[in-house]
Amino acid sequence: MCGISGCICSVSGLTEVAKNMATTLGHRGPDDEGIWIDEVEGVALSHRRLSILDLSPTGHQPMISRCGRYVIVFNGEIYNHLDLRCDLEKVDIVSENSSAGTEDDMNPPPQNLQQMVRGRWRGHSDTETLLAAIAAWDVEATLRRCVGMFAFALWDRKTQPLTLARDRMGEKPLDYGWQGDAFIFGSELKTLKTHPAFRSEIDRNTLNLFFRYNYIPAPYSIYKGTYKLLPGTYLQIAVNNRQAEANHAPKPYWDLKTIAEHGMNAPFTRTEREAVDELEHLISQSIRGQMLADVPVGAFLSGGIDSSTIVALMQAQSSQPVRTFTIGFYEDEYNEADHAKAVAEHLGTDHTELYVTAEEAIDVISRLPFLYDEPFADSSQIPTFLISNLAHRHVKVCLSGDGGDELFGGYNRYFWAPLVYQKFGRLPHLVRLMASRSLSKVPVAIADPIFKAVRHFQRGGWTSTYSAHKQQRFATMLDFESPEALYRNIVSQSRRPAEIVPGSTEPKTVITDPSQWIIQSEFEKSMMYLDQMSYLPDDILVKVDRAAMGVSLETRVPMLDHRIVEFAWRLPLSMKMRDGQSKWILRQVLYRHVPVEIIERPKMGFSVPISDWLRGPLKEWAEVLLDEKRIKEEGILNPEPIRDKWIAHGEGKRDWSDYLWDVLMFQTWLETKH
After folding, report:
1. How many other CB atoms are there within 10 angstroms of residue 375's CB atom?
2. Cβ of 58: how many Cβ atoms within 10 Å?
3. Strand residues in 167-258 grouped as ranges (E)
């Protein structure tokens, strides 16, 4: 895991520019740094290294291919790189003869091609394997063969395109854009901002998206002219045709829409037992590859289905106790540490837990603008940072259970949204609108009992907690005209973000663009797909990557091995959600390793009590940021709806914590963005 950056430009002092870009990513790679410059073509590549595989100097980057043609900066891991090396030893690498390197790089290959390939390895890093594969098979063919999480930039010294590529599910970030005649890219926005051509002009339209979703979905970013590379794509920029190439769209080498539709059209037809066997095999295979490292490896453990499955299958493959980590809170309704401890004791892991106070959690807030670079308001970013900070004191790599909810039907909305649509969809829209407005006016003090009266929406064993906050979210969802509109209501923090950002227009996303939707007849699958396309890569994976890399910790997500994703789309809905139980098939895998009674409990989110904090310890801090005069002077947001909700929240009339946290995270970011 590392930090990468670079540019194509004609500025003077290119070496210094490249060094400055690398320096800003020191937290992503504290072990080594390097730059590579082509002054003639105006190309610079920068790298900061977190050494995980091949800790020797042979893993240093930027790295030049043995043939001399390619230069790469790489962030991530290729888990099957040893298999790729075996494949490379069986092929005739014709491209080794085409080079543009130094005299040493251009030595003629030996007559025996097998000897040439085996003798070409300088070390055992996956970066070197990736370069050799590209030299043998080209970029797209190599991407299709790779199993891993990654983002890289590749310069072809012969034909002179710069290639940017990102892994299939979007685990690793890569931002890019044109600023004047300079093309700039990097692992985080902060490195782009160090380039002298960068202009930090806020894009009000993407800010509109932030207030709807609490994150900015790819390909957009907070700054004009800057984008996130979409998962599963690569982009090529030609040095001799810069502006024309700037308009070229990224090219997909793996497409989730195609994968989902193919899986549903070719469903798994064997027995349920065989399906459970296959899933356990796939997850175990993924974990085996992701435990490969030359440094200590551990795992996050919450005691829930996903993280417990990962840890159980890690321990099954390890001769030593796996290192596991949990954060505990003193507030019972937010604390999962006891559940995690029970799982750890059963599996025999080397478990570390740390209880944190509200004050310790609140202290993290000041670090959030630096970590995330643009407005980001998933409040579970706080405990995610805390557990990452705990883990990095003991290990350099941690496996995470993220992805299980989206792949196997873990979110409560997958149960009750279809029921809401079925039961209320037949009512006239006006009736639903009136019910929505009436229910939303119920004060917080009496909201919980009313919301609990909706228990008849439950099915079988499905259980969840009830709160005024959920009741109010339920009220806003009654105003829908289609299943897709209902889903959009569910994931919207603000239903009318243009009221917060005057003069803005909401850009299209996968959630609002029908051309990107899958063709299916089950609402639950549609929601899972949209979550995998947006919420998972743009919220969950961003949250984990920035929090962990902020303390130089590599995180790996075994559930997002693309072979598991493809298998999940072949499964019928009944193997994911059954009798009110989420993640049915994943539970069957876990029950082979951990007793049911240790696992079964109501689902808890990885969250903190933001609502209470805004009425208590965060009240003064929030009041400063939400001051009406201040917001007017900044000239970006409309203070009136913000102040109204801030006052209503403080008086306990309604829980506006999600809405207000979005505003506060923007205001905090705005305060520090320069």
Report:
1. 26
2. 14
3. 175-179, 182-186, 226-228, 233-238, 251-252
Per residue in 395-436, pLDDT (tens digit) is 999 999 999 999 999 999 999 899 988 888 778 877 777 777
On whether the CB atoms of residues 554 and 396 are closer than 8 A, the answer is yes
Q: Please check whether residue 22 is in contact with residue 33, taking contact to mean a CB–CB distance below 8 angstroms.
A: yes
- Cα distances from 270 to residues 565, 571, 575, in angstroms, run 18, 10, 12
DSSP state for residue 196 in the 8-state scheme: T
Tracing tokens 């019972």 back to the chain, one arrives at 332
The first and second tokens of residue 555, run together, are 């995180």
pLDDT at 473: 66
Structure tokens at 337: 């540490």
Unique residue bearing structure tokens 């998972």: 536
Strand partners, 353: 326
pLDDT computed for residue 588 by the predictor: 97
The answer to whether 25 touches 186, Cβ cutoff 8 Å, is yes
Give which of 249, 244, 238 is closest to 42, Cα–Cα. Answer: 238
pLDDT tens, residue by residue, 299-312: 999 999 999 999 99
Q: Residues near 170 by Cβ (< 8 Å), separated by ≥ 6?
A: 218, 230, 231, 232, 536, 537, 538, 541
DSSP state of 363: G
Mean pLDDT of 502-511: 96
From start to end of 58-112, where are the E strands? 63-64, 70-78
Question: CA–CA separation, 148 vs 372, rounded Å?
Answer: 23
* pLDDT tens-digit readout, 3-48: 999 999 988 899 999 999 999 999 999 999 999 999 999 999 999 9
Answer whether 301's CB lies under 8 Å from 351's CB. yes
Q: What is the DSSP letter of 152?
A: E
d(CA 447, CA 472): 8
What six digits make up the tokens of 280? Answer: 């356990």
Most confident of 106-120, 278-292, 457-471: 278-292
* Adjacent-strand bridge partners of 397: 297, 554
Measured in Å, how far apart are the chain's first and last C-alpha atoms?
Answer: 27
**Residue 196, preceding peptide bond in cis (omega within 30° of 0):** no
Helix (H) or strand (E) holding 370: helix 368-372
How many angstroms separate the CA atoms of 92 and 113, rounded? 6
Which residue in 416, 380, 408 sits closest to 302, CA to CA? 380
Q: CA dist 137 to 95, 130, 131, 155, 469, Å?
A: 9, 10, 10, 16, 53
Say whether 480 sits in a helix, a strand or coil.
coil
Q: How many CA atoms lie within 13 A of 514 on its CB side?
A: 4
Contacts of 510 (CB under 8 A, 6+ apart): 217, 516, 517, 530, 533, 534
Angstrom distances, CA of residue 236 to CA of 150, 244, 488: 17, 11, 33
Residues 6+ apart with CB under 8 A from 393: none
Report the C-alpha gap between 302 and 489 in whole angstroms. 29
Cα Rg of the chain (Å, integer): 25
Contact 66, 133 (CB under 8 A): no
AA identity, residue 545? D
